[in-house]
Amino acid sequence: MSRLPEGFLWGGAVAAHQFEGGWNEGGKGPSVVDVMTAGANGVARRITDTVEEGEFYPNHEAIDFYHHYKEDIALFAEMGLKCFRTSIGWTRIFPNGDEEEPNEEGLQFYDDVFDELLKYGIEPVITLSHFEMSLHLAREYGGFYNRKVVDYFVKFAEVCFRRYKDKVKYWITFNEINNQMDTNNPIFLWTNSGVMLKEGDNPREVMFQTGHHELLANALAVKKCHEICPDAKIGCMIGCVPIYPYSCNPDDIMAAEEAMHQRFFFPDVFMRGHYPSYAKKEFEREGYHIVMEEGDDKILEEGTADFLALSYYMSTVVKADVKNENLEGVVNGGLPNSVDNPYVKASDWGWQIDPEGLRYSLNILAERYEKPLFVVENGFGAVDQIEEDGTIDDQPRIDYLKSHIEAVKKAVLHDGVDLMGYTPWGIIDLVSFTTGEMKKRYGMIYVDRDNEGNGTMERKKKKSFDWFKKVIASDGEEL
Ligand code: BG6
User: Fold this and answer.
1) What positions does UniProt annotate as the active site of this protein (predicted)?
2) Residue 38 counted as domain residue
3) In the sheet that 338-339 helps form, which strands lie side by side, from edge to edge?
């Protein structure tokens, strides 16, 4: 028997800011991503002070789901999706973030989207914060570095739980909360937390202080969700890029062991409810002063997540005696001592393709936390070619997804990992997070839009559309 269990949540994943567009419609305020310009492979996206006249911001229109949601959801239903993961654009609900009252037009938009999904029996899986903090909270308050922002987030979460409690059963507080462990590239602290490092800051100390506030916000939101939506499940999410030792040299083994703390720190706190010893030792050793108030321990302990959500795209490798110099533009999980893995190939964007790494990740996370897991992102960013007859043969994407679903099946059926579902990233083409490009496509549905914002926005099925439909219909048996 090689089917995944009945009830397994097959779906697709996106994020509001990467596909909705309508960046200033329906009362929406500007978010941290609305000031990010387009970049490219190896060319970082710029973060401008405000929305500048004449500058191109690819997320502003994105693929305009805001006006196409009915058509798009009909396609998702045709594919047979059991669930659909998206986020609630925080600034549609609280345009500045610190208002007393939420924006009704924004709330209504998500009611309409969720109703449309439920009409087809598609469960919404909803992320509360997928890089969408308001620009105002980032610029005026300093983002999550400022403890006041915890209250604003929790208020936003509570508004969403109360409004959508009868429509949403699966919640995720933060997307890839652990990206910010990489303080070399400013994009991560900015998008995770609305924080921009200043001259003289100790990056790691700022990151841990910010992280402490965000972990409190997570725990408080989890608790609220349990009170308001007792039948729902709420998780938090990490980007999982497992780190392998380059060799069996004990120095490489220890380099990988230590480097994995970069990946584990956040989930160690939000899954277990307390700080891990290696972090406490680092604070002590480095003299970091992380302000924690009385009662914070209890908040963390009482607000552990019901499940761990993860994205998985690639693995990386460390070698003890390597020292990479410039990590500023690195977006592929690279570390100061990362090297290429000689056993795997990479995508055109240098992301190492390693399906076994997904099985490995699921195993280590299941063993470490003993709670259900949910793969809420996995996918292959590639350039797609439209043939003369109008078809799009994206076989490399099918190959990537097929090998990763095989790994998922081994993890569940052979290793016994408790996995709630699998939602490949970018079920429909959208704006790339790290580069702002359209040509780095993930979708099984093509969208006619290019890097410069030209195109008709027409939707077209790719070859992978029918392939994934068959996979879902057979619960993963027919790959
Ligand atoms: C994850 C993010 O990091 O990876 C998504 O949660 C992102 O927002 C995805 O789009 C793929 O990254 P990219 O840069 O190829 O879009």
Assistant:
1) 377 (nucleophile)
2) yes
3) 243-245, 316-318, 338-339
